[in-house]
Amino acid sequence: MAELDEQLRGDIQRSGYYPDLVADALNTSLAGEPLKSYLVHHEATFDHDELRRHVTVLALTPTRLIVGHTDEHGIDETTPVPFATASTEAVRLERVDSVVVTRVVSDPAKHEPG
């Protein structure tokens, strides 16, 4: 199987979020198909007193949109060690017919466009 595009691999690495796991999951889904474009989005959120991180990678090939998402999960009463889940979805481009964009705005009465 072909290796990931060097620039994509570098952007995944710079996210600092389990780069080997993220790259491996994406590489499997790409299955050697050439990459036309991509987006790497790392997000950190606070969950009560814990920091939770996750990363989403969108990869566009000539025939498919690959959506990869990796989350980390902390320990709890059923899992004694932290773990991560890496999911990918491959969607044929002809099946993409809508996009949803959601905005969450604090104090929306004071929101200024731009």
Description:
Helix 1 (6-15) packs antiparallel against helix 2. This protein has one domain (6-94). It is built from two helices and four strands, in the order H-H-E-E-E-E. Strand 2 and strand 3 form a beta hairpin. It is globular, with a radius of gyration of 17 Å. The chain is of the alpha+beta class. It has a four-stranded antiparallel sheet with strand order 1-2-3-4, covered by helices on one side.
Indicate the low-confidence ranges by residue numbers. none
Q: What is the tally of beta strands?
A: 4
Strand order of the largest sheet: 1-2-3-4
Query: What is the CA-atom radius of gyration, in angstroms?
Result: 17 Å
Largest beta-sheet characterization: 4 strands, antiparallel
Helix fraction by DSSP (H/I, runs of at least 4) = 10-25%
